[in-house]
């Protein structure tokens, strides 16, 4: 049911301009949801809000989708049904939440909460990417320097060393042999490396490979707490939003399975669905859950006893989000010196392999 325009509605906020390009980004989805929330809260009809946003949208893919959604809404179709026709742009959880907002008459509030959830996810991803820039860049530059030294610089020194009757150090002989092997038989090793990388990528797309990699991340001592906390933050915030919007619990669990791709968490959702179907508490199925923080089961049990599952899970999501960001900062702070020391040691080894024979040649020349 589309909300009717109010008689004396304040002027609608001016939508932002959308960037050019073909792919719809997460930032643009956040902008779309925020604009819909502001306009519906101001008393603007959904169809009018969509028309205004579509007029300002310069992204072809999103503009075409919004234009079709607007036409469907004008034709009497609910917003959630119209959005469901574009699953590549609007996830099932997004559509289900809007449908619950329509049925409860809390459309603007639900849209605002959706925008906040999307914005939090986007902010967390940007924070993690920002923290990873330095160690990734340092590793890439160091690897490039090492490759240049081994493949191009060391062989030139090798031709010089052959002119002198000296016994080369073991590290020098090993690196020279490695460099010669790469230079002479690159046509063998390059396809093998590409095949190995492609095989790992393909394995990750298989159910068994996904399960193996997801389990490894959740059991890795350095990543276990971080991975569990980030999954808990996403799951709890989304579950809290869905429940407070009026989505039935079983449907919430099904949407959580689609929204979070970790296969271990999806297996946990299967257990939760079975518990709900059999009339048991969620907290029982959460005992010893490998995909969530240890405190999740006790907090969910408290929420079930008080009958405030939606509110408590939202608070849990906010808490885990802050904790996950702090854990990520700690992890990156620990990784940075390790990467620096390891890369420095490798570069020093290569330089030492070059300089030790030079010192020997210099001592021979002084005799």
Ordered list of secondary-structure elements with their pairings:
Elements: H1 26-41, H2 46-56, H3 60-74, H4 79-84, H5 92-104, H6 107-161, H7 170-184, H8 186-205, H9 207-219, H10 224-245, H11 249-259, H12 263-277, H13 282-285, H14 296-306, H15 309-365
Largest sheet: none
SSE pattern: HHHHHHHHHHHHHHH
Estimate the global geometry from the Cα principal axes. elongated
Q: Please report which band the strand proportion falls in: under 5%, 5-15%, 15-25%, 25-35%, 35-45% or over 45%.
A: under 5%
The radius of gyration is: 29 Å
As a percent range, the share of helical residues equals: over 70%
Uncertain spans = 1-22
SS content category: mainly alpha
- Number of DSSP strand runs: 0
Helix count, DSSP H or I runs of 4 or more residues: 15
Average predicted local confidence, pLDDT? 82
From the N-terminal CA to the C-terminal CA, the straight-line distance is 97 Å
Could you explain how this protein is built, in words?
The protein is mainly alpha-helical and 367 residues long. It is 77% helix and 0% strand. The chain has 15 helices and no strands. Helix 2 packs antiparallel against helix 3. The radius of gyration is 29 Å and the shape is elongated. It starts with 25 loop residues before the first helix and ends with a helix. Residues 1-22 have low confidence and may be disordered.
